[in-house]
Design goal:
Chain lengths: 157, 308
């Protein structure tokens, strides 16, 4: 398996902002409605935002002392805003995807190999709603795909 | 680079402190066993990993007294090329590298600083030990090493860590840390063996004053932890100048106490005398681990409590 080249991080990264209750509700509702992962799963975490990205970070007793640190990264990249939609990251799905109860695509190792190579597959499943799905193979969650118009498109890293 | 043939002369001045010195020298010619830590944050069922690795030709054995650690046969099995590694289900690491975090004993809800964190074996171990529920500040002074740390945090799915890029000696005050880990940069003598002759990193550079750096890091760590808090200082070297003498320096400068600790590997009390210099008697409560006794990398661990 080839390893991806690591993305460089910026020396001057800024503290992400803590999202409003409404924004948190919107993101967590998306996870609950789309994948059946209850919002209580993330109760111990803060939701932070940088531009179009949402990050999950453990809720500290007090955040202010931490905000005085010049940080490079904070927490786990959780969800992205793509146009007007929310898209779960593969990183977050790999961590929490095993809790999902719907919109999970179970692939055989051969089909997963093909999807990773060709980036899209003809695919039909009446149990799936169109949109972002969780790609799983032999019990392992690999990440995010898009199910649309009889095709499965890979967003796997 | 120190050739293996030169090793007996290099380590000779440790003959008095390394038990069964000849056995130690012989052991340098043998490869170490291969271990990994299972990451239950991402992998809720360990049989997925164990069966997956076995299907790829590895034999996997649980390690007694080290929960979530497994030994892999054959020793040269390419763990880093497996999908279990890629998906962040495993973190390959030596057994003795796990000891500093066992001594640190981190708890959910605490503020924890890992002062020299890259590439992240101990940061991710802390995250696992606390169920991803402690606030972990993972710091390293080098951007290239921090990149590796960030990649490992992402691979293992850790949400409880933030990363910073400060020189450890001047890490800013203001966060009330409950525990601080100083896994200090060191000469790496404990890692030295056949096939790893280049691990004595600072030998060739010659000019780096490691004990001075280590003292600076440890004093800062102590000043950053709150009263009653715990600092764990560790290295993977045998050299007392980088171990007991660094902790001795702290004990003379600050109101600190060494806390004895139980470890699941054979170990020896720290030295209270070295090269004619008498050190603080409490240093016998620190622990020395030798590679030929532990089948792992040589290590030194000191657990220190801040009194005032």
């Amino acid at each position: 398996m080839t390893r991806k080249k690591r993305k460089k991080i910026h020396r001057e990264a800024k503290w992400p902002r803590v999202v409003s209750l409404e924004e948190r509700e919107e993101v967590l509702s998306f996870w609950e409605e789309r994948f059946g992962i209850p919002r209580e799963t993330f109760e111990a975490y803060l939701l932070l935002s940088t531009a179009k990205n949402y990050w999950l970070f453990i809720k500290p007793q007090e955040i202010r002392p931490l905000q005085n640190l010049q940080v490079q990264t904070v927490g786990l990249l959780f969800t992205r805003r793509v146009s007007k939609w929310l898209k779960p990251t593969s990183t977050a799905l790999q961590r929490f995807g095993h809790l999902a109860t719907r919109n999970v695509v179970e692939l055989t190792p051969t089909a997963l190999d093909r999807l990773r190579r060709e980036r899209r597959l003809p695919f039909n499943d009446n149990h799936l709603e169109e949109g972002y799905v969780i790609i799983r193979c032999e019990g392992k969650v690999w990440g995010c795909g898009l199910y649309s118009k009889g095709r499965l498109i890979s967003f796997l890293p | 680079m120190l050739e293996l043939t030169e090793a007996p002369a290099y380590f000779e001045h440790y003959q008095e402190i390394i038990p069964n010195f000849q056995e130690f020298l012989e052991h340098l010619k043998k490869p170490l066993p291969l271990y990994f830590r299972l990451n239950e944050l991402k992998c809720p069922r360990e049989e997925i990993v164990l069966k997956g690795l076995e299907r790829q030709g590895a034999k996997v054995f649980p390690v007694p007294d080290f929960p979530r650690f497994f030994r892999v046969e054959p020793r040269d099995f390419p763990l880093g090329n497996t999908e279990e590694y890629y998906l962040g289900y495993i973190y390959p690491m030596t057994l003795s590298s796990a000891l500093p975090v066992l001594a640190l004993d981190p708890r959910p809800g605490e503020y924890i600083l890992d002062l020299c964190a890259a590439p992240g074996s101990k940061t991710t171990q802390i995250a696992q030990a606390t169920g991803d529920r402690a606030v972990i500040v993972a710091n390293d002074r080098r951007l290239d090493r921090l990149t590796a740390l960030v990649a490992n945090l992402k691979r293992l799915g850790v949400a409880s860590a933030l990363t910073t890029l400060y020189r450890g000696e001047v890490f800013p005050f203001g966060v009330p840390f409950d525990r601080v880990l100083v896994d200090a940069p060191c000469s790496g003598e404990g890692r030295y063996r056949q096939g790893y002759e280049g691990e004595l990193l600072y030998q060739k550079e010659g000019h780096t004053n490691l004990p001075a750096i280590q003292k600076g890091l440890l004093v800062r760590a102590f000043d950053l932890v709150k009263t009653g808090g715990v600092v764990v200082y560790s290295t993977c070297t045998i050299n007392p100048a980088e171990n007991e003498m660094v902790v001795d320096y702290l004990l003379r400068k600050r109101q600190a106490e060494i806390i004895p600790c139980e470890y699941p590997l054979p170990h020896h009390p720290g030295l209270t005398e070295w090269e004619g210099r008498v050190l603080h008697p409490d240093l016998q409560k620190t622990a020395r681990f030798y590679s030929h006794e532990t089948e792992s990398v040589g290590f030194f661990v000191a657990k220190i409590k801040r009194l005032f």
